[in-house]
Design goal:
Oligomer: heterodimer
Largest sheet of chain B: 7 strands, mixed
Largest interface: A-B, 53 and 53 residues
Strand order of the largest sheet of chain A: 2-1-5-3-4
Strand order of the largest sheet of chain B: 3-7-1-14-11-12-13
CATH superfamily of the largest domain in chain B: Aldehyde oxidase/xanthine dehydrogenase, molybdopterin binding domain
Shape of chain A: globular
Shape of chain B: globular
Number of helices of chain A: 5
CATH superfamily of the largest domain in chain A: Beta-grasp domain
CATH topology of the largest domain in chain B: Aldehyde Oxidoreductase, domain 4
CATH architecture of the largest domain in chain A: Roll
CATH class of the largest domain in chain A: Alpha Beta
Amino acid sequence: MKRELHITVNGDAHHLLVDERRTLLEVVRDDIGLTGTKNGCGAGECGACTVLLDNEPVNSCLVLAHEADGQAVVTIEGLAKGTVLHPVQEAFVEQGATQCGFCTPGMVISTKALLDRTPDPTREEILKGLRGNLCRCTGYLKIIDAVEAAKCLLREEGAE
Amino acid sequence: MNTCVIGRGLPRIDSVPKVTGEAQYTVDLKMPGMLSGKILRSPQPHALITSIDTSAAKNLAGVQAVITARDVPDGQFSFYAHLADKNILCTTRVRYVGDEVAAVAAIDDDTAEEALSLIKVEYEPLPAVYDVEEAMQPGSPLVHPEKEGNVTWTVQRLFGDPDKAFAECDVVVEGKYVTHQVAHTCMEVSNCIAKWDAKDRLTIWTNTQAPHTQRQEVARVLGISKRNVRVINSYMGGGFGSKLVMDMKLPIAAILSRNTGRPVRIVNTRAEEFTTSKTRYPYTMYLKTGATKDGRIVARDLKLIGDAGAYHDKGPATINFSSMMFGTLYNVPNIRFEGLLVYTNKEMGTAFRGFGNPQVSFATETQLDELAEKLGMDPVELRLKNSNEAGMETSCGADVCGCGMGECITAAADGIGWNEKRGKKDGKTLRGVGLANMVHTGGGGRFYGFNSAEAFVKLSDDGTVTLITSALEMGQGAHTTMAQILAEELGVRLSDINVLSNDTDLTPYDLGSWGSRATFMNGNAVLAAGRDARRVVGEAAAEMLEADVMEIVVEEGKVWVRGSDEKHDLAEIVEHAVNVHGSPLSGTGEFIDTLPEGYTVPTAFAKNIPCFSFGTQAAEVEVDIETGQVHVIRVIAAHETGTTINQTMAEGQIEGAVVQGIGYALVEELVRADGKILNDSFLDYKILNIGDVPEITAVCIESIGTNGPYGAKGIGEPGLVPTAPAIANAVFDAVGVRFYELPMTPERVLKALKESGRSEGGSS
């Protein structure tokens, strides 16, 4: 059955009529058309669909769209300001942390969530923060480098 | 070499769209009127189809088409046309759990799924066979009853006189080695959209590593002219070999689209990806190695039984390739190789990073350590003693042009602290170090009788440069590599270059991105096209600036006469040529890599590899004898790149491959009960996560002697090849137990420790 859904995605307010069985991932990708968020497994196992829901990282394939009613969602498309990349994105580019790129949106969002919560994470905290995001290409080492680099970029940004 | 762009770890040209979410993958595309296609798959490992009733599915509102074998061309398909063995949809028999039986197209996913549940198929179950050695026994169930047995392909190679040589050896080691099925697990699942246009031309959007050969494959199985097929790919979420040969969802989507007059999309679920998108070939290997007492390997004999699964796919080619790498790793004068490919009632195998080489390397490189032990020789010394050298021709005809094998061995051994750690126990922890060598092609192969590539460069009057190449980008960085080569040759910035490679209507014919061939093959073509474009720019600039063509300098997108301070944008030169002379500027290049003289299959078959890439990995592990867990502490991965085009990307290829290799060594295995895969999700099929990754040092060893671009070799596959034997050899150093089966799961480790009396509470 369809119900009204009010949801803010990357600052845009959306008012939609959505079947109550649909997931947040489906609504973001299919109804709103933001395909940056990826579906890697549909079962909350790979983290490719990670978005921020009221600033908390969630697997959007495991959240019903109506559970997000009245809340604010940030997807990968919501990080850069125009052509200026978010420091986490910049760090992923500079450190060579992307290969095929399919896990990248989830990785970047999870990294942002981690650094928002813990601005100066230890290595253990980095590994814990990204453990839910699978990558088959990179072997993760350059992703760890990117998180370290993003931490420094954010600190510099904060100091300015 | 005076290079501006080559070798530097420049950021990939496609990384910004990937970090912003702008990059559109095939699975992100949408088309007006597009229908959702889904495939009904066999729940039986082996059965006859006695009836199919599609009437209820057809009557469901929103269903646009339901098809079975009756609705599709009856021709069969395989990668090799003469070995065709698979129907688009099963006719009377299903051969594995997952075989395609029927398909539907409906207005949305839910309706398509409901329609599948309404198709009634009755099966008469048949005995099934899952083990290759059982499948070879007389009286075993036949996977393809029209054939005499389940052995479907054999390869035999003989160099020298192994029987005589073994009789004269001082030391001989023999063993049986077993590997199992593992999955590629690309993050983007296999998917496609098919659409026919008003001119009766079929366009397929799909994530593929080889659009041109898949175009031929789709045409062949549908029985239509290939001029009526166009294949387009987009950003691609991984390949690793799984997207080289056509998946049946392509012709199925094409037929559903034909029948409905609408675009039809089919996307694997993650479970379908695990159970039907094909696997690495499991090998059962009987290996024998003989050496003289001073450590010279003089004879090797390998009998290899490859598990095809239910259909051929890339099996024959994989077995052939195994024989080449087996014959080339060391120059052994007497070699016997027998390779058999055997059908079983399982998901079929296909190409997978390393292509039959990781399996064989596990056997050969762990057996080499056993040989070293019997000889009382250090494994590093034994390897150095038998290492190939540049300029050699091996007994199977391999021309070892450039060779950094000795340097790789030394770099890996020194990096891991071999002399300080090997064989030394501190009495507290069960740690050990081990190492393994590898060889792989560094530039594809002339397996089709040829190996060639072409590239085009278009210069725009705004100064941008468009490169049209068939180097497929599946995540490995081929576009950036090609752009770096062009930037170097033409004298422009990386950011000036756009790379187009995604459409068979646009790109020149090409065999695809596999066999670590893109850097070598497409790179050489791009290099030639870049030089051609540079020549044309030089001539145009000389004319415009009234200077000698030899005095024209082009660097970082600026053009000037040597010695002059007046620098022009490349755009001005192109604009002048176009607007004043009506003469657009472009460049073309090709690289044709023909079979060398002396190539014959029986005596010199390894000559069809244009260059070899050697490497050595050393691993340090700690074994927990209470739980059986093997913990990899660090890996030193020294690989020959010839010339490194992009340091960061080369490291990324090696690191990613090592992590896949650790998975192959320790945790990855598709597990079945009654023919059905039990672990068809990331929850149950473990791939390494960020917390599982050890310290990895990727070392790029540069060497000379190959004719790749600037001497570069491919580095896509090698990093996975020696990882498992290096770890197995390290486990032996830690606990004194040898492993003959992968993966070395805690269960297998505990069992082996118990058998050897080394487990906790054991008798040792």
